[in-house]
Amino acid sequence: MKLLAGNQVSGVCAIIPDYPTQALDIKILIEGDDVETLAAALAAANAPHIEIVVVPAAATPRTKPKALNVGLAIARGEFVVVYDAEDRPHPQQLRAALAAFEDGDEKLACVQAPLAIDNADASWIARQFAAEYAIQFRELLPFLAKLKLPFALGGTSNHFRTEALRKAGGWDAYNVREKSRAFLA
Asked: Is residue 111 part of a domain?
């Protein structure tokens, strides 16, 4: 688990070379009873713009959306982005999302970056996921957006206007059953 937590921090920090650190407020959300991950994250997160946030383990439900609401309550920026623990965001993703918000109007509340599977050669199932993601994020979702039709967001690489997300009430804590190791920047 310690290696995983170090990789989690490294993945999020990979976006930093292309974005000014003084503009970042990274929150690493970890369930309070995940002692190994917490210890590893504390050891790896040694920058002033990275904060480890302990999500109360006793509080139910134990979901990613519950943890995201904890992070949203203390988020300080105009924009919030969600990354999952295993994500390795593209180094220019933050700038691309900001440009999309600047190109849109004030009604644009969310931008989702396309997700890609990077181990498609590992197995048949990995190739299937890679194909599914390519179709979904490169073809289907842009088509639905062009038609101004609603579509579901994936659980990661979503960029939100913080105020719009707060006005919407944040996340439904009972909606998804996932561990709450997520990044909020």
From this structure: yes
Nearest to 137 by CA among 148, 152, 122: 152
In angstroms, the CA 114 to CA 94 distance is: 13
User: pLDDT digits over 87-110, tens only?
Assistant: 888 888 999 999 999 999 999 999
For the entire predicted model, the pTM comes to 0.82
The answer to the question of residue 12 being in a domain is yes
**Domain with 41 in it:** 2-115+154-184
Cβ atoms within 10 Å of 180's Cβ, excluding its own: 23
Categorize the per-residue pLDDT at 12 as very low, low, confident or very high, splitting at 50, 70 and 90.
Answer: low
Q: Which residue has the tokens 């913080």?
A: 162
Could you identify the residue written with the tokens 């190994």?
36
SS (H, E, C) 143-175: HHHHCCCCCCCCCCCEEEEHHHHHHCCCCCCCC
Based on the structure, what is the number of domains in the chain? Answer: 1
The β-bridge partners of 52 are: 28
